[in-house]
Reverse transcriptase from mobile element jockey protein (Ceratobasidium theobromae), 1217 residues
Amino acid sequence: MAAGTQAPRPPAPAENGLISREIMQVNAVKSNTRIHALLASPTYNDISILIVSDPWWGPIGTAKHDTDDQHRLLGAPVNPLWRCFAPPIDTQNPASPPSCVVYVRKDRGIMAEIDPLSPATPFFFIMDIFINGFEFKIVPVYLHGPKHAEVAEALFQLPMIETPTLVCGDFNIQHPDFVDFPGAKVKSSTLGREFAGWLLDSDLHMLNDLHRPTREPRVQGHAPSIIDFTIANGALFSMDIISDWDSSFAHSLDSDHAAIFFTIHAPRVSERPANHFHFVIDPLMEDDWIAVFEHRALELGLKSTITCPQEVEELASGLLSACTWATEAVMESRPTQHKAPRAPWWNEDCSAACGRVVTAKEEGMDSTKSIKSSEISGEGTFLRSAQRSPEKGLSLENFPDFLTDRDEIRAQTSHLWYCIRKAKRTFFDEICSTARPDNIWSINQWYRGWKSYGLPTLRGPDGTLATTNLAKAELLHDTFFPYTLITPTGQSVEAMTQNTELPFPTISKGEIAANLASCSNKSAPGAHGSNYRVLRWAFAARGDLIEVLYNAMLSFEYHPVCLKNALIAPIPKPNKFDFASPKAYRPISLLETLSKLFEKIMAARFTALSGLHSLIPPEQFGGKDMTSCMDAGLSLIHDIEGAWAAKKQASITLLDISGYFNNIDHDLLVRCMQKMGYPAQVLGWLRSYLSNRTASFRINDEVGMAFGLQGRGIPQGSPLSPVFSSIFTAPMLMSLRARGVRMRAYIDDLCIFQQSGSQEGCIAGLLEGTCATLEALSDMGLSAERSKTERREYGQVAGVLLGPAPELQKSCVEDGHEGQVCLGRDENVGEQPSGLVGIPRAHARSSLNSKGHCKTLQTVQNIACRWASGSFRTAPTAVLEHTIAMPPISFRLRHQCTNYSAKLRHLPSSSEVCARLPHSFRTSVPKLATTARSSPINALAAYTSPNAEARVPYLLMPWEGVKLLDDRLAVSMPSCRGDAQKKAYALALQSRITDLAGKTGVATLYTDGSCYSQDGTRHTGWGWCLQLGSEEIDHAGGALGPNHTSYDAECCALAEGVARVARLAHQTPLYLLHIVSDNAGMLQGLLSSKPKGAPSSLDRAARDICDLASQHAQMDLLLSWCPAHHQVPGNERADAIAKAHTTTTPTPAFSVSTDRIRWEAKERLLAEWEVHWNTFKEKHPNSMGALALMNPPHLRLHPFHAAPGKHWKLHTQLRSP
């Protein structure tokens, strides 16, 4: 039998030099579990290519979408050991799913790709297969449905003469000449005669054994038949390399079609490629790796003093070599083709159940092999057969034996399906049980499905085909990196004002460590294969070498050559179906992590300096911090609503810069940054970084020849690419703003806005703005992508909102250099005046003002509540929300809007969102602000106050921060559970404070805040006391008023106390500053470079501490958390001071704090939710949930619900209707 049960063995050439691969074809009858079993069971380990007719094709994931009609992702079952190929059609159309798919094993040395130039339908497509350098084609087929004859006719028209070709699948066609077994009932038909004629005329050869049916009857009166065929064309048949054709109903896992097996013996056309290996980085081997790395670094003589650029190169290459050496010496190596284990959820129960199905089917066939299938299709036919053939010994007494065999097969098949479902549920339950806040989004990736891509044959602009990996790399190089000698004028760059030189201090170990801590171990490594986990180990072992390297790169203005090569991986763009076009891919550069870490440090500095000094115009929303794509959308909707409020129409033109990242001119980029004020050493390093860069395409795991990048382009995948792209557009956006063009940009996507009292006025303004934009792009050596240019209209007629037009059918750009513009005609809206784009019917407003969107979101949340709690569909939603601590969506949305509004006072004053705030806000620009109530920016502003707390952006630069003090910083914040642990820690802390008090130059600062309500009035106070040695030398306190929180008070006390320490340090030498606080959140915020939700006073305290540390290099810092009210004298003293000042006259710096706004939003949510819950209880007093849930709802899961297993009976009643 073709399908064995032995363990997988590595492919080996046969004695005659041929390499044999086994192929299986089967009709899966739309069974998900059947395909999973075929892919995962060890029974089918010998199969290298699996051709599946009538596969299961259904929802495999969920895509986020703003409507309900396109959120399900469709696909076939997946297995990590197999690569799945489907027809190159719109596979997301549920009306015409693929009727056949092909699976190819990854570990068998088989290259496969879909032929994109051959016709493809849901019923058949053509694949190119390469085994041992030998190429042949496979045509999977499943002909069925009402268009059976039409589809068959299309198949018969395919040319199959020159290239060796296999045609395999379910044809649903019979012919009397193609059966030769007893009991066959085949009538001649027109389609059957055409099929026979096609075989004869096309020199096609049928490989089937005509004595063996491929389909067994399951309906009374039907007969077995041959409708599944394996066909070879003359070119393949003449080579005599197909053998061992066999069929088995047992191995099709109870399908009514037989599984077909055969072997192809591929001749050796080319040399067998060398096996490539990759190394598995095992975290448990960290100590061994570090030891080998340190030893190798000593052998190479890596030193921490550098005197010339050549030594910079030697140090960089030595670090890469030492990392590679240690990895190869310590870590386990595996062939690259073993990309993943078998399906992770498949277990021994599934394998045993699959084997029992095969055994039951084989035993059932043995017991009935002397009886025709048509004779046992029913009791009546069985009796008639017994009467006609008494010699067979048939009688009604033994008829149940035959039914028992069939029942056994069905029982075993049902048990296999049960085992698979159970294994899947167990596997994913374990994944969900490990959910944490830091990995919840990675778990969410399961809903999007899983795809694997092999780069298929590509088609060049002239129609030539690129079939080999080398040819594909050359075509992609010509597409993405075309070199035409061009010298952009850069007039907008020269028109920029020359800024003063910006500060750019040396890079410290603390800054390196902070950036390295945020790097993901899942980031793809470069050519040397060292990921960020390995780099962390290297930094822990010899961080001094990396610090010296990075600073030497700046001081010697040199970027090492070994860090300039990039592996380019072409990644398919979403929603692209013509994968033969190179434009359907995006080139992503895989760089060395040693270089990417340095680039990340530089990118953080460039971003902060650009924001602090407003070097990038506010019209650019990408490539910088504190702005996002959502801000661009909010400002655009605001302007449209403002135009409507003024009884005007609005229009936009959308442009996309063609090949933007690959066409950024290096000289212009350096000149632009020079105008911005970056120092000479940074510009010198930048020239070295951009010059003489090389890249290599990695196509289907094969790395091509390196090529040079000729003076243009920045690597996509580098942390520097976003900020460089935004810096490069800065002069263009400044020049367009001076010319009166209202522009928005998000990296390379441009939007020109125009409003006017008429559509003609909008068009005229857009024409002028588009011409100016095209000229500005040409000045920078760029151009617009013609196929992605469109215009959209937003009008308001008779109170009806009219919205964006569909994409234009023609390009908006006719000739960018001459500034000629042609507006396309939309052919979907009938006759239009002057041939211009018409206006469609409706425009969707922001969801902030739409009850319809809230209702949809609430429906989705109700489903999620039932899924999370495992409840019945009829269970009351209010009870489920209370049980799993999930408030109704309308309350949650108001809470989120309030939280977002608090950020409005934290953005830079030049932000496009801040400029459009109402007139009462300080940052409001009168010509941009509008009173339109439907503006989302106005709606958000209503949730906050113009006098709310504001934070100063960029108070700390990337090279500054308390955490970057490195060796001068010590932190004591243990995790104490229970009062006993807190008491023990408090005693240890008091002992430590006593020891430090006996030393010279030790200052201890205690801070605390107090907040309470009395007679309906909220009082908030802060206090601190400062001790030098064991004596208190100063203390202070104050009140903040009712619109602040204890967190605000604590941070205010810290800021005031640190300011007093700074004055003390100028009078008395200090060697240690010990800060003691009972607020762990404040201490954690102090250590964060960008504390989330922290008061502005915490930024001021961090700024003062950094200044204090820089002015007094001998002073260290110790941060200690203190358990509240555990009799620590200094903490009790600060608490008493804070309480004593709560009722004094408040002196706040602002009317309401950000933390207070968030607190009020939370309290309002809880109050509204409690009213909602009480209303439900009044309407349903006898509900089990109303009787059992006595406490009001809360945002945290109650301990009773956190462990439902302890109270499963009551939980079952709560989740019941």
Q: What stands out?
A: The chain has 34 helices and 36 strands.
